[in-house]
Amino acid sequence: MEKQVSQSVINRLPRYYRYLGELLSNGIERISSKDLSEKMNVTASQIRQDLNCFGGFGQQGYGYNVEYLYNEIAAILGLNSHYKAILIGAGNMGQALIQNTNFEKRGFSLIGVFDNDPQKIGKEIKGIKISDITDVEQFIKDNHPTMAIISTPRTVVNQIVHKLKDCGVRAFLNFSYAEIANSENVVVENIHLSDSLMRLCYKISAKNAETTKKD
């Protein structure tokens, strides 16, 4: 039976990958779990437990080979798979994602962008032409993208997602304010920037309250 990996471990893998990438760019060849823990603010024990879910990768008295571990985590995350992705909604959010996200480095190739605004259709962003949303079904049939990035108004999200599911799209990265539910054979990552802002606001308020008590 395949070992089940907890969501908390999966959530930490991109951080390991990011920090190891920084170490590589600085010419560091190996690192101990203790030194890595100090950089990441995660205990050395937690790092060892996390990596042991996938085989360990370390050597006692040596630590971790940075390049090897970096490549292994990339493989675990599937970053070399280059799944095809499309983006629905070329408004401010959608255009910012295209301009500022290195999809190739994160396991995806962005192959199509769709919108319903005549003023946007036909224009190009980073070499990708914005197509009419009415053409998305034929595009999916011809190109078989795995993932759709959703950055549309919340009022049309469920309608669009339902259509894309019927066309065979099996993963969604959702930047709209509507919640997309996971269902059979479909994986969803809901990104709510407003939730992050509210969590940050709470943390600031809690920290201020703590400081006030001390004073």
Named at the architecture level, the CATH assignment of the largest domain is 3-Layer(aba) Sandwich
What is the H level of CATH, i.e. the homologous superfamily of the largest domain?
Answer: NAD(P)-binding Rossmann-like Domain
> What Rg, in angstroms, do the CA atoms define?
21 Å
Tally of helical runs: 8
Low-confidence parts: none
| Terminal-residue CA separation | 56 Å
| Average pLDDT metric | 89
The largest sheet is:
7 strands, mixed
Main CATH class of the largest domain: Alpha Beta
Helix proportion: 40-55%
Topology:
Elements (H helix, E strand, L loop, with lengths): L6 H19 L4 E2 L1 H8 L3 H9 L11 E2 H12 L5 E6 L3 H9 L7 E8 L8 E2 L2 E5 L3 H8 L3 E4 L6 H11 L3 E4 L12 E4 L2 H22 L1
Parallel strand pairs: 3-4, 3-7, 4-6, 7-8, 8-9
Antiparallel strand pairs: 1-2, 5-6
Helix pairs in contact: 1-4, 2-3
What would you say this structure looks like, in words?
This protein has helices spanning 7-25, 33-40, 44-52, 66-77, 92-100, 136-143, 157-167, 193-214; strands at residues 30-31, 64-65, 83-88, 108-115, 124-125, 128-132, 147-150, 171-174, 187-190. The protein has 215 residues and is α/β, with parallel strands linked by helices. The protein has 2 domains: 7-77, Winged helix-like DNA-binding domain superfamily/Winged helix DNA-binding domain (Arc Repressor Mutant, subunit A), CATH 1.10.10.10; 83-194, Rossmann fold (3-Layer(aba) Sandwich), CATH 3.40.50. A 7-stranded mixed beta sheet has the order 5-6-4-3-7-8-9. The protein has a two-stranded antiparallel sheet with strand order 1-2. Strand 3, helix 5 and strand 4 form a beta-alpha-beta unit. Helix 1 (7-25) packs across helix 4 and helix 2 packs across helix 3 (44-52). It starts with 6 loop residues before the first helix and ends with a helix.
